[in-house]
Amino acid sequence: MSIIESLRPGDIVLVRYPFLYFLGWCIQVIGRDMWAHAALYIGDGDVIEAKGSGVRKASISEVLKSDSMVSLKYRIYRPNDISLGKIKKVIQYCEDRIGWGYDHNAVGFVAVFKLLERWGLIQKNPLINPLNEEDKEFCTELVAGAYAYAGYPLVDIASSLVRAGDIALSPKVSMIEI
Questions:
Q1: Residue numbers of the domain that contains 17
Q2: Distance between CA atoms of 59 and 43, rounded to whole angstroms?
Q3: Cα separation, 158 vs 141, whole angstroms
Q4: Cα dist. 99→52, 55, 118 in Å?
Q5: Non-local CB neighbours of 85 within 8 Å, separated by 6+ positions
Q6: 97-152 per-position pLDDT tens digit
Q7: How many CB atoms lie within 10 A of CB 38?
Q8: What angle do CA 74, 75, 76 make, to 5 degrees?
């Protein structure tokens, strides 16, 4: 069975980048997170994701594409016991943000915050991300925000502070074997 045949709308795709994708690799190292990117599967072979160019709709095969020099690693996470109505709200939330910009400042804050937290210089989980900008989102903020909007928060921190690893560790999702 192919990955597309295994996916359901609302599934979360987490991606780990090798060293050759320097920014993704930095996110993983600084944030002590094995995952650097999150995208939401919406059906028909498409995902919605936030990348450096902003929030966009893309094919799942494009997101998981690797060139001849690198091999991307990914995992699929599926929300546990969520209604179809809430999945539709999650997807609508993401669709409404297509065309928004990428929140470079907020993702930078998360990286610096996680580094300072790692060194024991700052307490865990501030209530908000002070650099979060309106009409801009980064990948995990988009996914976590969509689930929170639908009344099914994946984590107990603000979506503007969520890392991909936080989603992977959430008790509200299960990893799907493909």
A1: 3-176
A2: 10
A3: 8
A4: 12, 5, 34
A5: none
A6: 999 999 887 777 777 776 667 667 666 655 565 556 678 988 999 999 999 999 99
A7: 27
A8: 130
Supply the DSSP symbol for 159. Answer: G
| Number of domain units in the chain | 1
Sequence-ordered list of residues with C-beta below 8 angstroms from that of 10, at least 6 positions apart, any chain = 40, 41, 78, 79, 82, 87, 90, 91
CATH classification of the domain holding 68: 3.90.1720.10
**Residue 33: both structure tokens together:** 């997170």
DSSP for residue 132: -
Tokens representing 107 are: 């993702």
pLDDT in tens, 35-85: 678 999 999 999 999 988 999 999 998 887 754 444 567 889 999 999 999
**Please, are residues 142 and 89 in contact by the beta-carbon 8 Å criterion?**
no
